[in-house]
Amino acid sequence: MSKQTYLDHVQNRYGIGSEGMLTDFLSRRDKRLLLADRIDLSAMVERYGAPLEIAYCPLITDQVERMLAWAAAAREQAGYDGAFLYAYATKANFAEEVVRTALAAGAHYETSATADVLIAHHLWRQGLLEESRYMFCNGSKEDGYIDAIVAMRTAGYERIVPILDSLDELDALLYRCHAPLLLGVRERHPADKVDPSHRGGERFGLTQEEIGQVAERIAGTAHQLVIYHAMVGSQMEDLDDWMARLARSAANYCRLRRRVPSLRAFNFGGGMPTSAYALDFAFDYQSFLRRLMGELATSCAEFAVPQPDLIGEFGRYTVASHNVYLLEIGSVKHGQATPGTAEVEPWYLMNGSLMVSLPDALIVEGQQFVVLPLDRWETPAQGVRLGGRRTCDSDDFFPRPSQPPLILPEDGQGLVVAVFGVGAYQQMISGRGGAHHCLNPEMRRIIIEQDGDALVVREVAPQNLGTIMSLLGYNTEALEPVTRSQPTQVDRKPAREMARVLRTPRRRQFVPRPRALSTRETRGSRPGV
After folding, report:
1. Residue ranges per domain, the chain?
2. What is the pLDDT of residue 487?
3. CA dihedral of residues 491, 493, 499, 504 (deg, nearest 10)
4. Domain 59-319 - what CATH class?
5. CATH topology of domain 6-57+321-470+518-523
6. Rounded to 5 degrees, what are φ and ψ at 229?
7. Which of 143, 171, 432, 480 reaches 20 to 30 Å from 37, CA-CA?
8. 8 A C-beta contact, residue 5 and residue 381
9. Bridge-partner residues for 372, per DSSP?
């Protein structure tokens, strides 16, 4: 009886065909994986080697535009009066090309720390952040954060909106800012109402009593309370549960609106799920927005207040799918069974580090990533676990012990796998441009942006080990070159034929060379197209 092939596994497990769209951002055509149905990942590896990171920015534009279209359709279906505002949560990915692309697609700006505001200030000065866009400043605000907000408002940016997380923040803002401010309040949910899988969210915001104090403090001043923020969780795929939590907040908004006529926007925060982490993902975005608009309309009618503008903050949803890692399996090692275990999956050891490249695998309980081989789909498959070769760390593996193994082709040596869903948080948590665990160097990056009908490709060289050592204070100098002697040949062949054997080309493996970081731009090129 023949073993199940990898293609059999994908078809049986996810109900998808061997060709065509696999997700809304990934396809397989002529046995080759295509990012955004356009970028041939195998061709990218053939050209640039592996490990390799690809950032395809047009997918960010697609995400923003799709959500705006769903919101417009939901408004029409619900007969909703308020506008819909899409804000990009920049903490998901601060890369300049990412933020710039989201803004160009029509996104407003959501911040979480001092650096966010400083970046926004520069973008405003450069004309990339339009004055018509709102800036929603979330999170607990230390002095530097408040100073940055005040500086930008004093410079003339009127639509910057601090979302108050404590009464102390209000005191500091009123004392330091002499220009009229637009303000928001974030609702602090009772501990039993917070998403149990994200208990850390309970610490944010103000109680209803504190929100009442804010309203009293600014009444009769030049400042206005305009936004009610009601985030309840992250990656909220249970639509009914999400709606039940937001219904309570909608009623609280209406009660406050009756006291504060300037209040005009309801911010449901983040939490929007994304297709980037599972091939079988399903979520009806338009239905969610329609139901939320309907709930707000019903509450507003009950309390006899106007329907508010609706704001959403989108981090993972905006950027998770636009990045992919291409990693090569450099070695395969058999696993060792424990007593009572019939079989154990082998180790596929990657030329890289999973805990550096995928920090969410360690931090977020149960975090999944889509991992697909670039080829060998028609060969037998087996359960495996991926391990990092560039750290001597027992925690450097994926999936975690509580999760089932990955299914990948049995012929693992030299296999290149694509890891999707890495565009949000992974680079920001791991850090970029510094020293990483076991000095694992950052991989080569290919950044692809849309410019009219053309694609602009920019290459960022991989990290140089000498540069990393210098960051840590080492005074490096050139070392003796390493020479590799040819293995002794046992087979006695004529000299001419032996020369041909020794010159037989082998598949190239990319090896980082010590040279300065550089970038290269090629206008109008279409990688892998």
Report:
1. 6-57+321-470+518-523, 59-319
2. 63
3. -60
4. alpha beta
5. Lyase, Ornithine Decarboxylase; Chain A, domain 1 (2.40.37)
6. -105, 130
7. 432
8. yes
9. 418
